[in-house]
Design goal:
Largest sheet: none
Number of strands: 0
Structural class: mainly alpha
Shape: globular
Length: about 160
């Protein structure tokens, strides 16, 4: 999630999937915390599989041949940042499902981790692109704004 530059897009995409799924399911989290945890994990994995599959098709067409297994595995590994982005938020949701923290706290913690991840990815992007301080602030702010829009949607849906 915080390593290679190629993971920025997958991490941002995975984080958005996670946060959107939490926002959509947060209303029922109090009664079904395990379902929300599972829905988040399954959603990001299903969309990762779809992403890998569609990229495999595109690569095959671009190369004019089917990818061999090693090429497919490399493509799938390259996109692992997407499901990797779900690990910390799902762990927070599981803490709620286990009763270690309140469900409501777990949901907000998971969303907060998502916003923080988006901020870090904005900073990583800015550093890799060697952006000015002002452009770095804009990069981070845009990512955080995206996350906060999702949090706002959660608040509107749940209340």
């Amino acid at each position: 999630m915080f390593g290679h530059s190629a993971g920025i897009a997958g991490t941002v995409y995975g984080t958005i999937i996670v946060m959107a799924t939490i926002a959509a399911g947060a209303r029922t989290a109090e009664n079904h915390p395990w379902e929300l945890s599972a829905a988040v994990a399954v959603s990001v994995i299903v969309l990762w599989i779809a992403h890998v599959y569609s990229n495999t098709l595109a690569e095959s067409l671009q190369r004019g041949r089917r990818l061999d297994f090693a090429e497919f595995r490399a493509l799938a590994r390259h996109e692992l940042a997407m499901p990797g982005a779900a690990i910390a938020p799902v762990a927070a949701l599981v803490l709620g499902a286990l009763g270690i923290v309140a469900i409501r706290t777990a949901v907000w913690l998971a969303l907060g981790l998502g916003v923080a991840t988006l901020a870090v990815q904005g900073a990583r992007y800015a550093a890799l692109e060697r952006l000015s301080r002002a452009a770095t602030v804009v990069s981070i702010a845009l990512n955080v704004f995206l996350g906060l829009v999702i949090v706002l949607l959660k608040a509107l849906i749940a209340h």
